[in-house]
Amino acid sequence: MEKDKERWNKRYTEEEYPWKEPSKIVREFYNLSRKGKALDIASGLGRNAIFLYDKGFDVDAVDISDVALGRIKKERPEINTIQADLDIYNIPENSYDLIININYLNRRLIPQIKEGLKKGGVVIFETFTLKKGKEYMQPENKDYLLRPNELLHLFIDMYIVFYQEKDYVKPDGQRAFISSLVAIKNCDYFPK
């Protein structure tokens, strides 16, 4: 944990972080959720947490970086910040109307995301996906990337509102491939 915390703190302190605007998928689909409690997993500097707070949600922002969380608190003191190593953090059951997970993958959290949602709760999930070709982002550890159609299969027991895999150009100009999903837990359209 300490190594990851130091790396992210250094990044948020010394680098100009390219993502400033709320994610397009969050802007487009947040309104499917009741205005209630929201969780932003791996919130970073809080672009999505702040957006949700400004739209009327009671927001928990969880991240490993105390530097990033400190910036969120400075900008929106009402947001509940939780400093945690997401490799051991547990999402409380039946607690959230909306859970977002953007540009982060920890497969251990998938069942907890589902359990953490209240009935009718919405998950918005978007992250990088493996795509062959040297022009695409290729991290050293491929475990940090979804496989094609994996995200769809991980949430297939929920009502899928939106699913897409597509090319994406990151703010730093690097080409990537992303998977995007919006799903509802135990919604009236999806029999139990």
Q: Which labels suit this protein?
A:
single chain, seven-stranded mixed beta sheet, 6 helices, 29% strand, SAM-dependent_MTases_sf, Rossmann fold, alpha/beta, 192 residues, transferase activity, transferase
Q: Please, what is the average pLDDT?
A: 87
Name the shape in a single word.
globular
The CATH topology, please? Rossmann fold
Can you list the strand order of the major beta sheet? 3-2-1-4-5-7-6
CATH architecture annotation name? 3-Layer(aba) Sandwich
* Annotation, overall tally of beta strands: 7
The low-confidence runs, each spanning 5 or more residues with pLDDT under 50, are none
Query: What is the level 1 CATH name?
Result: Alpha Beta
**So, the CATH homologous superfamily?**
Vaccinia Virus protein VP39
Number of alpha- plus pi-helical segments: 6
In total, how many domains does the architecture comprise? 1
Query: Sheet with the most strands?
Result: 7 strands, mixed
Helix amount:
25-40%
Q: Indicate the radius of gyration in whole angstroms.
A: 16 Å
The secondary structure category is: alpha/beta
Distance between the termini: 39 Å
Order of helices and strands: HHEHEHEEHEHEE
| Beta-strand percent range | 25-35%
